[in-house]
């Protein structure tokens, strides 16, 4: 049994300067492992959307990335406003992005649905006023 | 395995292991072992940065020499349009073509006009093909290689359109066959290149086996002979037969200036290209139609085999576009017709050539990743390069791959030495005490 490799990233809300660095690092790790490109793309999209959600809405988050020969897991635990209506947030096209966020190319209401679409298993829990936890699992074929 | 042509070689005799190349290499493709630089072929993208900085002139771009062309009955020089920007500010492209003939080529053929045709073909492709966006220009071979190595997910984004170099070479050959009654094998097309990457593209075209270019000569190599004959060829027709916006292709934005699509980006420099490619891989920038990307920050006028300062050359290109760019050199409708007949299309797929993973077996690669991380934590993280790897991260990787040992790091070696000397000191002290005890006993 191989020990899972794991790495944690601290993501700061509102810090657009460093936005995307965690997902870039995750991609770089996967490329060193030689897993296939299409799989890396799914992870890249899911990780990036999750990271950007934190940057745009939350105060901060811990993002943990775990990989075994069979599966990768990304857990995001944020301190932020939480999501009052998860079902609505999961609907494509629904967004609470500000005009500035839209100007930057976000807020098409695709974030969470996009993460789900690229995951094999996706969990989300949220408490208003406290924060949101995402669990993303993607199987390495 | 088929031995791949390399456009850059390091001369082991000249190399003094001074590491300038290793420090500047944007893909960490150089290591210095035993005071000699070596190139890791699977990481090299032939950008030529190492050629530029080597203090010992030991990094040699591989081009052809004139004698290689004696086997052809007829030779045709095709200068990269960059070549037009290497001489005095008002020397027209037509005089430069005459100079190439004067120094011994059978003919000289312009490629800027082919750039205009290719721009029209790109526009047609953008208007008619519904493929993943943004499309990426495939005309900088170093960028193509970067995508092959690091962004296999983006291979489908490279627009499958032939380069102006190939289009011009094909046209020039066909014309010579028609006008001089020669066979294709009797004609040698020589591209005058601004960079080693173009040489590689003629030897190992990524999509297909055969290039219409038979050899390349560096701009810097041919420059002195052209300079010598220029005064003799200034008289002659210096009209605007070489004209059109294709003349602007050697600078950042030159391609996009030929297109009508609004959502286009022009990128110069590998680090910016990497940032943009990361974004595309993350699923962003889908509303951008076309990205013109160059590995050199100033595009082809900044190639490592040029003579003129990139910014002066850029100014000259802009002036040429001002003088000769207004009137197109091609009939748009004719080119659109050719496009529909697949005159510009590139068949086949570009393969990915991923960097060697830590191990072929994912489980073993994971173990090595763990070891790499543990070793990295012990390193000083200052990327001094004294170990012969460009960064502490690459060093850790080299060690777990068995290509270096942890002691190659001076900081780790020093720690080892400290422990060793402390142990020794301890032993000497213990020994001293024992001697004293024995003396006291006696």
Written overview of the protein:
The complex is a heterodimer of chains A (141) and B (442). Chain A is 35% helix and 29% strand. Chain A is α+β, with helices and mostly antiparallel strands and 141 residues long. Chain A has a 5-stranded antiparallel sheet, covered by helices on one side. The longest helix of chain A has 21 residues, at 37-57. Chain A is globular and about 45 Å long. In chain B, the strands form 4 sheets. A 4-stranded parallel sheet of chain B has the order 6-5-8-9. Chain B has a 3-stranded parallel sheet with strand order 7-11-10, with helices on one face. Chain B folds into 3 domains: 8-61, Alpha-Beta Plaits; 66-340, no CATH class; 360-442, Electron transport complex subunit B, putative Fe-S cluster (3-methyladenine DNA Glycosylase II, Chain A, domain 3, Orthogonal Bundle), CATH 1.10.15. In chain B, α3 packs across α8 (219-233), α4 (112-128) packs across α6 (164-180) and α4 (112-128) packs across α11. Chain B contains 14 helices and 11 strands. The chains are: A alpha+beta (141), B alpha/beta (442). The interface between A and B is medium-sized, with 29 and 28 residues.
Topology diagram in text:
The complex is a heterodimer of chains A (141) and B (442).
Chain A: E1 5-12, H1 21-33, H2 37-57, E2 60-67, E3 71-79, H3 86-89, H4 99-103, H5 111-117, E4 121-127, E5 131-139
Antiparallel strand pairs in A: 1-2, 2-3, 3-5, 4-5
Chain B: E1 8-10, H1 20-24, E2 30-33, E3 36-39, H2 49-53, E4 59-61, E5 74-79, H3 93-102, E6 107-108, H4 112-128, E7 135-136, H5 141-150, H6 164-180, E8 187-193, H7 196-203, E9 215-218, H8 219-233, E10 264-268, H9 270-281, E11 290-294, H10 310-324, H11 332-340, H12 362-378, H13 392-400, H14 410-441
Parallel strand pairs in B: 5-6, 5-8, 7-11, 8-9, 10-11
Antiparallel strand pairs in B: 1-4, 2-3
Q: Tally of extended strands of chain A? A: 5
The biggest sheet of chain A, with number of strands, parallel, antiparallel or mixed sense and barrel status, is: 5 strands, antiparallel
Q: Helical proportion of chain A?
A: 25-40%
Overall 3D form of chain B: elongated
Task: Order the strands across the largest sheet of chain B as they lie in space.
Answer: 6-5-8-9
Query: Largest interface, counted with CB-CB under 8 A?
Result: A-B, 29 and 28 residues
Order of helices and strands of chain A: EHHEEHHHEE
Residue-averaged pLDDT of chain B: 93
CATH homologous superfamily classification of chain A: Histidine kinase-like ATPase, C-terminal domain
Distance between the termini of chain B: 77 Å
Helix content of chain B: 40-55%
> What integer value in Å does the Rg of chain B equal?
27 Å
What is the number of E strands of chain B? 11
CATH architecture label name of chain A:
2-Layer Sandwich
Number of domains of chain A: 1
Taking Cα atoms only, what radius of gyration of chain A do you get, to the nearest Å? 15 Å
Low-confidence stretches of chain A: none
What is the CATH class of chain A? Alpha Beta
Mean pLDDT of chain A: 90
User: What class would the helix/strand composition of chain B place it in?
Assistant: alpha/beta
